[in-house]
Amino acid sequence: MAHPMDSIRAWLAEKNPGVGEIPPDADLIENRLIDSLGFMEFIMLLESVTGRDLAVETMELSQFRTLAAIEKNFLPGTPDGPDAS
Amino acid sequence: MSVLTRALDTPELRELLDRLSEKAAADYYNPYRTFDWPASLPTDRLWMSPDLLSVHGTPYEASLSEEQLYALSRWESVNFYSLNVHGIRELLIEVTRRIHRPGFGPTSEFFHHFIGEENEHMWFFARFCLRYGGKIYPDRSLTLGQETGGGGSDPAVADFLVFARILIFEQIVDYYNMRMAADESLAPTIRAVNRVHHQDESRHIACGSRIVELLWRALEESDKTAEQLDELRAYLKRYTETSIENFYNPSCYRDANIPDGFALRQRLLADPARQEAHRRVLSRTNSFLRRTGILAGH
């Protein structure tokens, strides 16, 4: 089964053709890999891979800013994730 | 004299807004007493016109049972009114910021009617969601602090984008309102909410169309480069597409017991039948944007 982060990387690659490998600490907002119009679909994807609704209105932008932050905040303990033993 | 003051201070706009303000006052109604709110709506029929459902015209539609379509129509109607609640809240914030700002003098009187009516629309849409769906679907947007349109913090660009977004949002919603207001198969409360909203929105759209066109002309005549104007065009084209895509909410599919909502959304968005449906919904918006030159070259 694919790691949930693979789905997120695939979505980013589809929305940003030609960007190549995105480093875990690259700022997705600053580099416009996610913009305000794409953000809502990105949240739908994140809800899909986490299996839960996200209360975006109560969240901080820093939670979504890098791939490392997304994995730490939303996907801890997933196979091959940071908390996997 | 600022770019904005010149843009909106025209005899033709003043005459239009005077007429719309008079009509708003003459047609004023008490929204809190206008509608019947039965305790529940029938679940053995659609809550949305069938051609407005996100699956309409696709092979997937035929695979759903009648009961599944009824359930989907309930949740997609709650999504539609939820989108209205969030969209109205944002436009109220932006119009309220501008109502008595220098340059908006010609529009201030009408903006008072606009703000009052929009607040009432937000109330009846929220009431529908909470009474019949038990919830308002959450807003997934977040302010990212990115500049749009090559204008930096240029207020002329910001003003144009605010009113262009409001107009596009209202025109898309109005397509749904008109269809459901005329659909005799829908429950009377659903038809009434859509009919009343359409009546008020016709004034807002008339006003918004003129404001957007005048603000665009001002940008064309300003020192904005062709590249900056193209960036605004590209943004609005994407904004329009994204607005339509919000009708494909994975949470609705989940609530209607349809699995893999995000994957279904992606499949539906790629379906030629849905692209054709989008063209119909956006016909008026695209005609306006092309006629005014806002979407020229795209």
Individual helix count of chain B:
13
Name the structural class of chain A: mainly alpha
Q: What proportion of the residues of chain A is helical, as a percent range?
A: 40-55%
- The oligomeric status of these chains comes to heterodimer
- Gap between N and C termini of chain B: 33 Å
Could you tell me the CATH topology label of chain B: Ribonucleotide Reductase, subunit A
Q: Any idea what the shape of chain B is?
A: globular
Average of per-residue pLDDT values of chain B: 94
Annotation, overall tally of beta strands of chain B: 0
Share of helical residues of chain B: 55-70%
Low-confidence stretches of chain B: none
Principal-axes geometry of chain A comes out as globular
pLDDT averaged residue by residue of chain A: 88
Radius of gyration based on Cα positions of chain A: 12 Å
InterPro entries (chain B): AurF/CmlI (IPR025859), Ferritin-like_SF (IPR009078), RNR-like (IPR012348)
Protein name (chain B): Diiron oxygenase
Organism (chain B): Streptomyces nondiastaticus
Pfam families (chain B): AurF (PF11583)
How do the strands and helices of this protein lay out in sequence?
The complex is a heterodimer of chains A (85) and B (298).
Chain A: H1 4-15, H2 36-50, H3 67-74
Chain B: H1 3-8, H2 11-26, H3 31-34, H4 59-63, H5 66-98, H6 105-133, H7 155-181, H8 188-221, H9 226-245, H10 250-255, H11 261-269, H12 272-281, H13 283-291
Q: What key phrases describe this protein's structure?
A:
heterodimer; A: 85 residues; disordered C terminus; B: mainly alpha; Ribonucleotide Reductase, subunit A; 70% helix; 0% strand
Please explain how this structure is put together:
The complex is a heterodimer of chains A (85) and B (298). By secondary structure, chain A is an all-alpha fold. Chain A has a domain at 28-85. In chain A, 41% of the residues lie in helices and 0% in strands. Chain A has three helices and no strands. The two termini of chain A are 17 Å apart. Chain B has 298 residues and is mainly alpha-helical. Chain B has one domain (3-27, 44-136, 169-291): Orthogonal Bundle (Ribonucleotide Reductase, subunit A). Chain B is 70% helix and 0% strand. Chain B is built from 13 helices and no strands. Chain B has helices at 3-8, 11-26, 31-34, 59-63, 66-98, 105-133, 155-181, 188-221, 226-245, 250-255, 261-269, 272-281, 283-291. In chain B, helix 2 packs across helix 6 (105-133), helix 5 runs antiparallel to helix 7 and helix 7 runs antiparallel to helix 8. The two termini of chain B are 33 Å apart. The mean pLDDT of chain B is 94. The interface between A and B is medium-sized, with 23 and 23 residues.
